[in-house]
Amino acid sequence: MLQADVVTSEELAAVKQSSATKALQNPSVRVLQSPVEVADIQQHWRKLEQSAKGNAVFQSYAWTMAMLENPSAVQSAKIFAVYDQQNLIAVLPLRIEKQKSLKALTGLGEPFQQYSEMLLEPGYKPAEVLNLLKPHLQKAGADIIHLRQIREGGALYDFASAQFTEVGETDGAPWLELNQWDSFEDYLKSISARSRKTIRNQRNRLHKSAGLTHRVIRQGDPELETMVLRTLKGRENWVEAMGYSSRALEGDGLQQLLLSLSKGPAKGCELIAFELKHGDLPISTEWGFLFEGCYSAYMADWNPDYEQSSPGKLHQMDVIEACFALGIDKIDFLKPASRYKMTWTLEVASVFDAVSPLSFKGQLYASLWLKNLRPLAKRIILTLPKGPRALLMSTVKKIIG
What we know:
The chain has helices at 9-20, 35-40, 42-49, 61-67, 71-76, 126-138, 157-163, 184-188, 193-209, 223-242, 253-263, 311-326, 339-342, 360-383, 386-400; strands at 27-32, 77-84, 87-99, 102-107, 119-120, 144-151, 165-177, 212-217, 269-278, 281-291, 294-302, 330-332, 347-357. The protein has 401 residues and is an alpha+beta fold. Strands 1, 2, 3, 4, 5, 6, 7, 8, 9, 10, 11, 12 and 13 form a 13-stranded mixed β-sheet that branches. The longest helix has 24 residues, at 360-383. It comes from Pseudovibrio brasiliensis. InterPro entries: Acyl_CoA_acyltransferase, BioF2-like_GNAT_dom. Keywords: Acyltransferase, Transferase.
């Protein structure tokens, strides 16, 4: 009888180590700024996307090119491209954000991106690449590095946890891996019996009166733009009525970005929307981005007349079923870890903001404002009833213009 070759544990460990890590041999860094420079490395950028850790939709080539259609974004862009032996191995898209007398190095997609992330070729250690980048980041002309919403599982998470200072409140991003079930029906059995019963009863009541219908609107459908703009307006009204604030909803920047993304030539990131109707009346709309098999649920809006029926939670069931039908691998519900999202999953990725001051001004901004005064002001404002809070925020907006 022939005896099979025996691989020792030491040999197996060596094989795993060699395939898991790559040491930098001859690294170099370029700082890109213009759409032309980014377009020149499109093929290599897209290759990094296919193997990126975490959820890098907001650092995708398509998202970046859409951002760079805005002249002000081009002027402030600092896109760090890392090469090893002339091969592109990492991309960190950032920009200089001017905040009165302070300059912050932050994500290129701010304030619209939901995660800060770095595209990195598998095998390279994030810490080694980021240590290589550190002097380039420090020379970018900023007072502080401010990376918002760094997601667990991504290339930045461990390094930022160890080397940066965490600020603000740690939150979570619920997510759902669809491939662990053979079908939507199998997945539904994983939801608690109590939640299934409540949702079934709510849906039955609506079905009996006028019926429920659901549809998916893909990129290229002329209705997509109208639906997204309607949702943006509804969200703006809700934020104002609740007395909240949102940098992403100020001005028309997000609207222009979405139009650029949906109509631009860059591929790889698709805008997709879902709508739930009661009879002919839309009661819940949700849209987001489809990227590398993952749907990121970016924004939702619902008809306030149906608030008692929890339309957002009801609609999420249709969205998940549609994702199964479309062959989507994963759903990222994004921040925050709201209760209605947690009805549908138990998986949550930690998300936090982190800073690294680069000047005395940056140190004051981080220690006084970001770590102390801002969280205190936020807690005080959120304890106010909705009416007084909305009046206060409206007055503040008028004062600051």
